[in-house]
Amino acid sequence: MGITFEQVSYSYKELALKHQLALDHINLSVKSSQFITIVGAPGSGKSTLLQHLNGLLRADHGTIHLLDMVVSPSPAKLPKQLSQRVGLVFQYAEQQLFKQTVWEDLLYGPLNFEVSKAEAESAALAAAEFMGLDEAVLAKSPYELSSGQIRKAAIAAVLAAKPEIIVLDEPTASLDAASRGELMGLLHRQCSEQQRTVIVVTHALEDVLPYTNQIIALHKGSVLFSGAPHELMLRIDVLEAAGLQMPAAYHFYFSLEQQLGLDLSKLQYYPSAPQLAAAIKAALDGLN
Amino acid sequence: MPYFPNSDNKTAAIQLNNISLTRGKQAVLKQLTLEIPAGQWVALAGCNGSGKSSLARLINGLLQAEQGEIVIHGKRLHSEHFFDIRSQIGYLFASPDDQFFGLTVRDDIAFGLENLALARELIEQRIEHYAQLLGLIPLLDRHPATLSGGQKQRAALAAVLAMEPSILILDEATSMLDSSFRDDFLTLLTQLNREQQLTIITISHDIKELAAADRLIMLHDGTVLADGKPDVLLKRQHLLNTCRLEAPYALQLCRELKLHGIDIGESLDEQEVLSKLWALLSSKSLTATRSSR
Question: Does the domain formed by B1-88+165-246 have CATH 3.40.50.300?
Answer without folding.
Answer: yes
